[in-house]
What we know:
By secondary structure, the chain is mainly beta. It contains one helix and 14 strands.
Amino acid sequence: xxxxxxxxxxxxxxxxxxxxxxxxxxxxxxxxxxxxxxxxxxxxxxxxxxxxxxxxxxxxxxxxxxxxxxxxxxxxxxxxxxxxxxxxxxxxxxxxxxxxxxxxxxxxxxxxxxxxxxxxxxxxxxxxxxxxxxxxxxxxxxxxxxxxxxxxxxxxxxxxxxxxxxxxxxxxxxxxxxxxxxxxxxxxxxxxxxxxxxxxxxxxxxxxxxxxxxxxxxxxxxxxxxxxxxxxxxxxxxxxxxxxxxxxxxxxxxxxxxxxxxxxxxxxxxx
Length: 271
């Protein structure tokens, strides 16, 4: 499942076409500056009542599901238009309805991607992105946390920067993608959006939505779910190279999937 991946530099590159400054949200449409790295370390604490389904839309009975995730996110500006990135996702999962309470640890998935800015000006950018999801590993085998098979995703991204009265500034980032599964799970349509508002220097307010819609037919026992998630967070620049973020996300609705809430903290390094 997709989690919130902050992308700290979005407002940095888009507000009035100025020099890069610290910002936040997911990687978004803008390319990373040539020769620059963005490293983000995110920790999330997620709790859900399974309501008959686990995190991948598989039958799980009733109970509680707790997920701790550590997910370093790293990307590099290879050319003025091309950005490369990767992200391993490590989790500890505790589930109380298997029967009894069980836990597992491991890597959910290892993601690799390339993002290319097709067109841009001082205020807007259109990009395309390809992503490969490499299957994870875990111990023990239950509860399930590791992605069992590879995933392939294509995505189109649009970013727009704007100014507001009172010296405020902001941006929007809209993304649509198709994720192909090869393990019997249903393919997915992804639709994500971010609004970022910078009310003063060194602060950024974020409102985000992440939507997953399964399409096609899953194999028996395979994942087939919809999920609609919203997130709100605040980012504060400690220095030009370091920022911190704190936020919450809420699963607002879905189908065949546990709905829960999470808090998350992150530290960004830019170099």
